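Notes on consecutive records. When two proteins share a document, each keeps its own sequence and its own token line. Never mix them. Below: protein one.
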Amino acid sequence: MQRSRQEAIDGLLPEQREALILERLRTHGRVLAAELAAELQTSEHTVRRHLRELAEQGHCKRVYGGALLISPADKPAAIRMHEAVDRKARLAVAAVSIVRPKQIILLDAGSTNVAIANALPDDADLTVVTNSPEAGARLLNRPGFDVILVGGRIARGAAGSLGATALLQIQQIRADLCFLGACAFDPDEGVAAFDAEDAELKRAMVKSSGRIAIALTSEKLMTAAPFAVAPAGAVDYLFVEAEVPAARIASLKAVCDNVMVARS
């Protein structure tokens, strides 16, 4: 005779409870201690202990009331450039729809933003300022682009220049639109990055730009990274993939004025 679901939950060992919580994190991104305690028929104190242990293992970040999954985007740029290429191309096609002639575009480093550089049409009549050598290379010798490459130190595994030189140059720019790179995005926790210098440069880009746009692959949604960049409400345009569930789209629309879905 099969055991009921509740009997199975009641009989969970601590390590099985922790594995179930990690599964919920990977499925939903954010979990709430109170909801998990009710589902697992245990105390919030026990759930918080499990979340603390998972955070110490690097799986999640503790936030008020629960935890967020750590973004999987903490990989070397060379690896990320070859991941989800078709998905990033679809996001890029949607993202470039908001670009207008004669704008100054600030293009942050990152593999999705390299796809945006590719997707910009010839004769776009744009000035593109970027800290990404790869994105700059995609625009060179194409008609309709004035390309300004931001200098500075490029750390091992990074996708673009960082440090004092890059920061000073960004602070001197007044861009119409910035395509900001994001390692993680959550409606409550906002935009985040894995590197302190990268986060500082991204904050400068936000201050130097009239409007902020982010194109995100689904695995970065409802996730966390160590260094805060900007609140979710600072993002004017958020481009997401078609597979994002309707409930998650609704939570994004509650904090961002323009959530646009990239169709396949």
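Protein two starts on the next line and is unrelated to protein one.
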Amino acid sequence: MSRAVIIIAALVVATLLVVTAVLLAALGHRRIGGGLRRRFGPEYERLVTRHQGDTKAADRELDRRLKQHGSVRERPLSPASREQYAVQWAAIQKRFVDSPQEAVTEADALLARLTSDRGFPADGPFEERLAALSVHHAQHVDGYRGLHGAARGRGSTEENRRAMTGAGELFDALVAEQPADSGRHRPQRHQAGGGGPR
């Protein structure tokens, strides 16, 4: 074989190796990104929007959350604690009719206590608690984010109602039946007779 043929063959092989490596990296990123998209759902989409369409930046942030908060183990609540939380939430929903802003503020404080009791970070900024919650309850954190925002400002009654409804989904997930009592008791949230925010 001539020297030119050997050089051309080597260049073709090197080019094929580079193209293969690039394709494998792209497929691996798509597979990782797809897994994060499935796991985090609307939270993933919110981060992509916040990062102006940069899916790699959203993936990096969610990877950081998984590494930092993936080992959080939710502590179970006793049946009595769950019932007490359910009663308090129902009372806040009833209060919403006459004092929406006050009810939203109380609901935000109640959820902070509940998340702490379940083992999520209680100290530090709200966004860090939300990051930890997103690893375990990704489908419900946006409602909690809305409630926290509504508790900090004066939203309209309709905005406050939507915030309460969204946060109620996280509340339900956090007080739901847990392994500690093997399902012997599951509190039902009481609905205010047509007057609650839901």
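For the record: The radius of gyration is 24 Å.
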